[in-house]
Design a protein that fits this description.
209 residues, alpha/beta, Uracil-DNA Glycosylase, subunit E, two-stranded antiparallel sheet, binds uracil, binds iron/sulfur cluster
Length: 209
């Protein structure tokens, strides 16, 4: 059973977790990824409700930068957060899986979906981040995060934008992953998908403002 669980420090802090995760080799993805991409920022830059966003796994640019959501998905996320009235600097952003998984296609590295075993192996890091950060509002971006935290039967398409209670936060809101908007077949579909995403984030804005 591969799991990061034995690597979680006792009485974890953000710094301890980040350092320990940097050396994680609990699942095979440490070989495909350049580095562990941990959540950030440390602490809460502002007083007020604590908001945590959870994606799937770092992408190509995140893998190089060592920071979550700095590539195309991240730019779309920033745009949507701003449109919803949420300051990115106000939220903690992390991923369900901390290493980039990809398949080669020429010189391009194409995102590959993490397996259930990889998600399970990495989950102790996310659970520890949740215990340390203690979000008031938790936002699951896409099915990987939603199912890891809310259960295998959770359906984002059915329950997106609907606040639910959970052990992880007072309120959990699930929505689509920003990359699904980037994959929309045409500009019209993209615009509609972006608007629906912003609407889900407005639910979060209403809770925290
Ligand atoms: N997609 C994610 O889920 N997370 C990132 O950090 C970047 C893209
Ligand atoms: Fe460890 Fe997660 Fe990276 Fe796997 S993906 S090696 S569990 S940090």
């Amino acid at each position: 059973q591969t799991t990061a669980a034995p690597l979680i420090p006792e009485s974890p802090t953000y710094d301890k977790l980040r350092k320990a995760a940097a050396g994680c080799q609990a699942c095979p993805l440490w070989r495909t990824g350049t580095q562990t991409v941990f959540g950030e920022p440390e602490g809460q830059p502002r007083p007020g409700p604590r908001v945590m966003l959870v994606g799937e796994q770092p992408g190509d640019q995140e893998d190089r930068a060592g920071r979550p959501f700095v590539g195309p998905s991240g730019r779309l996320l920033d745009e949507a957060l701003e449109a919803a009235g949420i300051d990115r600097a106000q939220v903690y952003v992390t991923n369900t899986v901390k290493h980039f998984k990809w398949t080669g296609q020429g010189s391009r590295r194409i995102h590959a979906k993490p397996t259930t075993a990889e998600i399970r192996a990495c989950l102790p890091w996310l659970e520890a981040e949740l215990r340390v950060f203690r979000p008031d509002v938790l936002v699951c971006l896409g099915a990987t995060a939603a199912q890891a935290l809310l259960g295998k039967d959770f359906r984002v398409t059915q329950s997106r934008g609907q606040p639910v209670a959970s052990e992880w936060a007072r309120v959990v809101v699930a929505t689509v992953h920003p990359s699904s908007i980037l994959r929309a077949p045409d500009p019209r579909a993209r615009e509609a998908a972006l608007e629906a995403f912003i609407d889900d984030l407005r639910v979060v804005a209403r809770i925290i403002h």
